[in-house]
């Protein structure tokens, strides 16, 4: 079974803090994704990575950056957290061949910015 | 562009009732279609998928048929259980070079009461 783990289930930070969310997958997948989930808005893609050190912006990248130094690990960084970044953050991984379109999700990190 | 529309929730049903959650999509080409489920406190997991017109995906008593003529992929279950209480996301994938971009609907919350 594919396993995607996220570093924290719950996180509380102060406005202006730098926040790191980490995601690790164990299936040697090329593609990894960060989404945020908000009530009524579904999942919105923040950033994704299709290879080590490669990244592309998703639909809502403002205020976020990412890092992928190793294939299994994909980090989301909030450079200066703000209250409107309070949300559930979901990481996902996906195989690298066209047609392997199932995404595998971690349990999520619920971030509260005070 | 590609999009997914789901019926508004929340949906509340009694145990053993029949469930339908409507999903329609807009897409160019021939996307794969999915239903993902998110149980309380967890990430999303794939419930079922269909990759071409008239395919039926099924799992855990849930079914959905890929209807290209009506651009729909409605989720059904004949007899729901309390353990089916969750948020259900309809999604489609569209091929983007080396990976399949997945677009999610807003989700439909289901509560099943004894």
Characterize the structure shown.
Chain A is mainly β and 114 residues long. In chain A, 0% of the residues lie in helices and 56% in strands. Chain A has strands at residues 4-6, 10-13, 19-25, 31-38, 42-51, 54-57, 64-70, 73-78, 87-94, 104-105, 109-113. In chain A, the strands form two sheets. In chain A, strands 2, 4, 5, 6, 9, 10 and 11 form a seven-stranded mixed sheet that branches. In chain A, strands 1-3-8-7 form a four-stranded antiparallel sheet, with no helix packed on it. In chain A, a hairpin with a 2-residue loop joins strand 5 and strand 6 (54-57). The radius of gyration of chain A is 13 Å and the shape is globular. Chain B is mostly beta strands and 114 residues long. Chain B contains no helices and twelve strands. In chain B, strand 5 (32-38) and strand 6 (44-50) form a beta hairpin.
Largest sheet of chain A, in brief, is: 7 strands, mixed
Q: For the CA atoms, what is the radius of gyration of chain B?
A: 14 Å
Shape of chain B: globular
**β-sheet strand percentage of chain A:** over 45%
| Greatest interface (CB-CB under 8 A), with counts per chain | A-B, 24 and 22 residues
Compressed to H and E, one letter per element, the order of chain A equals: EEEEEEEEEEE
Global morphology of chain A: globular
Oligomeric organization of the protein chains? heterodimer
Low-confidence stretches of chain A at least 5 residues in length (pLDDT < 50)? none
Question: How would you sum up this structure in a few lines?
Answer:
Chain A is mainly β.
What characteristics describe this protein?
heterodimer; A: 114 residues; mainly beta; seven-stranded mixed beta sheet; four-stranded antiparallel beta sheet; globular; B: 114 residues; six-stranded mixed beta sheet; 55% strand
């Amino acid at each position: 079974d594919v396993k995607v783990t996220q570093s924290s289930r719950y996180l509380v930070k102060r406005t202006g803090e730098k926040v790191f969310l980490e995601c690790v997958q164990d299936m040697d997948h090329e593609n990894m994704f960060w989404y945020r989930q908000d009530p009524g808005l579904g999942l919105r893609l923040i950033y994704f990575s299709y290879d080590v050190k490669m990244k592309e912006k998703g639909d809502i990248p403002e205020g976020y950056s990412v890092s992928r130094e190793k294939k299994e690990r994909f980090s989301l960084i909030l450079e200066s957290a703000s209250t409107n970044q309070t949300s559930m953050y979901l990481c996902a991984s996906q195989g690298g061949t066209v047609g392997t379109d199932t995404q595998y999700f971690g349990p999520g990190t619920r971030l509260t910015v005070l | 562009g590609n999009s997914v529309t789901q019926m508004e929730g929340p949906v509340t049903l009694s145990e053993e009732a029949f469930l339908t959650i409507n999903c329609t999509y807009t897409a160019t080409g021939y996307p794969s279609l999915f239903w993902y489920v998110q149980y309380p406190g967890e990430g999303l997991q794939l419930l079922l998928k269909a990759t071409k017109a008239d395919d039926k995906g099924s799992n855990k008593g849930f079914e959905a048929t890929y209807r290209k003529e009506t651009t729909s992929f409605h989720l059904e279950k004949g007899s729901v259980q309390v353990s089916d209480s969750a948020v259900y996301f309809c999604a489609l994938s569209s091929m983007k070079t080396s990976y399949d971009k997945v677009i999610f609907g807003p989700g439909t919350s289901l509560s099943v009461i004894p």
